[in-house]
Automatic annotation (TrEMBL):
Keyword Membrane: yes
Keywords linked to the UniProt accession: Membrane, Transmembrane, Transmembrane helix
Name the UniProt record assigns to this protein: Uncharacterized protein
Species the sequence originates in: uncultured Rubrobacteraceae bacterium
Transmembrane segments: 43-63, 70-97, 109-132, 144-162, 193-214, 226-249, 255-275, 287-312, 318-338
Length: 407
């Protein structure tokens, strides 16, 4: 196929994903009164569709510009699967609960929605770990892992799709599987085997990503940093939501986790297309600084409020809003000094080379104010360049002034 045909195919898959995800949002609006335990509201469903659309969008951009990179096509396929699953789910809820019999294929739509998420979700980590960032394996020795992952995904998908009896997933727990087979025990074994094969392949693929990072240098290392940062943010957000926010701030936790999930394809797209590639070091630095700063300030604020409320209760016998005011003033007073200290700690601990370079330049600047001998300054300057930039060779050439040349 020509480059133009490949680009047209990629954007056609994006358009199909967009239409299907939009159809899912429309069905969410039409079924807003249906007894759906999975419904989180129209706004959340629209945000979910927008987040899922990030995959085919990045996929189409990558596939149309880097035709040989398999990750672009992977994201395009994942986008279509997400779209079909979303539209099928909405179709099933609408026809089975909101307007029964209004459209055909309700059982088939419900059936599709209960298993399409398996290949859509699980192929993302395993093949991203194996193929990122150039769309190729680290070496041909990792080929069996790719085949193992494919076998695991196929077995898990087939087991879920053909399992006999009722679909089980709400709100379709009363719907009989239209494609169910009688071999229940065999299908359960296939599903379990597929799950463990998929899990093993994900672990092995993660090992290949670590090996790739250790061998990488220059731009490829920066690309891997983008992906690792997005994956770490998603993992951290998921843990915070599960441990601290579940049942307390449910919607806030879900939205933050969803946005972090959407950050993965965006980071992958930035890395592969190399747009502002080297900004990732600044992003990581700021994330470490302001993440630590936020946690510290929250702890100081809460500790201050609790301690002052206790003190006011002991003295005056009642709570006082003054505790909140004083705690806020303390936070305002310590913000900048604390930020500078956290920044210095992060630079010293994680960006040692940058920290050492700053210290060397600061020392050289202090000597520069007092030194008058040109030869000594020249030697010091060359030494500073060696220590901060670490070039293979450095020398300083001074062009003589006309007066000195005449003498």
């Amino acid at each position: 196929m020509t480059n133009r045909s490949l680009a047209l195919l990629a954007w056609s898959m994006w358009a199909l994903s967009f239409v299907l995800l939009a159809l899912g949002v429309i069905f969410s609006f039409l079924t807003r009164a249906a007894p759906d335990p999975n419904a989180f509201g129209l706004a959340f469903d629209a945000l979910l569709s927008a987040a899922l659309l990030a995959f085919p969008t990045v996929g189409a951009l990558v596939a149309s510009r880097r035709h040989g990179n398999a990750i672009g096509w992977l994201f395009c396929v994942v986008g279509v699967l997400f779209g079909v699953q979303s539209a099928a789910y909405g179709w099933g809820v609408y026809v089975l609960f909101t307007r029964p019999g209004a459209l055909p294929g309700a059982e088939v739509a419900a059936w599709l929605s209960t298993w399409l998420f398996v290949p859509a979700l699980f192929c993302i980590p395993v093949y991203l770990f194996l193929l990122f960032p150039d769309g190729r394996l680290v070496s041909r020795h990792w080929g069996p892992v790719a085949w193992l992952a494919g076998a695991g995904l196929l077995a898990t998908t087939v087991g879920n799709a053909l399992s006999p009896g009722r679909l089980g997933d709400p709100p379709f727990e009363t719907v009989e599987n239209p494609a169910g087979l009688a071999a229940a025990e065999e299908l359960e074994m296939i599903t379990v085997l597929g799950f463990w094969l998929t899990l093993a392949s994900i672990c092995l693929a993660l090992v290949s990503l670590v090996l790739r990072f250790r061998r990488a240098g220059g731009p490829e290392r920066q690309q891997l940093k983008w992906f690792a940062s997005a994956a770490a943010l998603f993992a951290a957000t998921s843990i915070v939501y599960t441990v601290f926010l579940a049942g307390v701030a449910e919607q806030a936790g879900q939205i933050s986790t969803l946005l972090a999930f959407a950050g993965i394809p965006i980071a992958v797209g930035v890395a592969i297309l190399r747009h502002r590639l080297y900004d990732i070091d600044l992003v990581i630095n700021r994330a470490l600084v302001y993440g630590s700063l936020t946690v510290t300030l929250v702890l100081v604020y809460l500790g201050g409020v609790v301690a002052l409320q206790y003190a006011f209760r002991a003295i005056a016998g009642s709570n006082s809003q003054l505790a909140i005011v004083v705690s806020t003033l303390i936070i305002a007073a310590i913000f900048n000094p604390l930020r500078r200290r956290v920044q210095a700690f992060v630079d010293r601990r994680f960006y040692r080379r940058k920290y050492d370079a700053v210290q060397i330049l600061r020392t050289f600047g202090a000597r520069l104010r007092n030194e008058t001998d040109l030869d000594t300054l020249s030697t010091d300057l060359v030494g500073v360049v060696h220590e901060t930039m670490q070039p293979a060779h450095a020398s300083l050439w001074l062009r003589p002034t006309p007066d000195r040349a005449a003498r």
